Amino acid sequence: MGAIRANLQAVSARIERAARAAGRDPGAVRLLAVAKTHPAALVDEAYQAGQLAFGENYVQEALGKMDALACLPLEWHLIGPLQSNKAPPQQLPELAHAVAALPRLRLRGLMAIPEPARDVALQRARFRVARELLERLAAEGLALDTLSIGMSEDLEAAIAEGSTLVRVGSAIFGARQSARDAA
Ligand SMILES: *Cc1c(COP(=O)(O)O)cnc(C)c1O
Fold this sequence. Notes:
Layout: H1 3-21, E1 30-34, H2 40-48, E2 53-56, H3 59-68, E3 75-78, H4 92-100, E4 109-111, H5 120-139, E5 146-148, H6 155-160, E6 165-168, H7 170-173
Parallel strand pairs: 1-2, 1-6, 2-3, 4-5
Pyridoxal-5'-phosphate binds at residues 34, 36, 57, 79, 113, 151-153, 167-171, 181.
C-alpha cells in the first residue's frame, strides 16, 4: 500500500474516532487534503486512494496543479490569504455581514488557525473562540454551515469543538521542505 493511501486511512480513522468521542456523526466532518508545496503527482496518488477535496494556499501553485489534473473530478479549495491581511475577531461580525451582503458571494462559514498549542485543553479553548464566533453570526441571521478548524496536529481538539472541515497536509503528504508554508 502506498504511503499516501495509508496516511489517508490513518487520518480518516483519527477523524472518525474524534467524532465518535465527541458524540458527533463522523460523516459531518470532511477532510480537505492540503497539498501545498507537493507536486501534482502526489495529489493524483491521493485521488487514486479516494480523496477528492484538496486545499491549496497559493493561487499560482493551485492553477498549475488544477491544469495538470484537469481530467480528474477534483474539488479545489483556496485556503491561503488572497491579501496579506487576516481578520481580527473584533472586526469579524462587521466583515462577515458585509461579505454576506455581496450578491455574487456566498459566505459559508469561518476558517481559523489559532496559535499552536501542545496542550489539548488549550487547543480546544482556542478553537472554541472560532466556534462561538460562528454561533454568534448564525444567531445574527447568517446561514452558515462550515467551521474549518483543525490541522494535522490538532484535528481531534477541533472536531471536539465542532469542526466540519479539517485541513490536513503533513499527516497525509509528509513534511514540507520549503519555508514558504510559513507564509
Ligand atoms: C498548510 C496548511 C494546513 C495544513 O497544515 P498541516 O499542519 O500540514 O496539516 C491547513 N490549513 C492551512 C491554511 C494551511 O496553510
